[in-house]
Amino acid sequence: MEVNVQFKKGVLELCCLFLIQKKDQYGYELAQHVSQYVEVAEGAIYPVLRRLVKEGYCDTYLKESTEGPSRKYYQLTIKGEIYMNELMFEWKDFVSSVNRLFNEGGENIG
Fold it and tell me: Where is the Transcription regulator PadR N-terminal domain (predicted)?
């Protein structure tokens, strides 16, 4: 399913935070997990990850790999967990509001 690029950009940060919260991940691994649900270019993930680290929502560490050089893993900070929870609340509220609008307009989306 082709999704509007702006929709993807708006939710990519939340997807990354959510998946990192479940398990520390390296960039390529994270891109693969997100791509299972939302079609996204691998390169789109890295600017998001840099911003999350810069803003203190994620930390990084290097871990040896059996398949080449060490990998940079991302892990959620306490600040990142709080931020992710706020975004989740906002996202759910937003989706609910849009669905209410559609339902009132005669469109039953979900």
Answer: 17-85
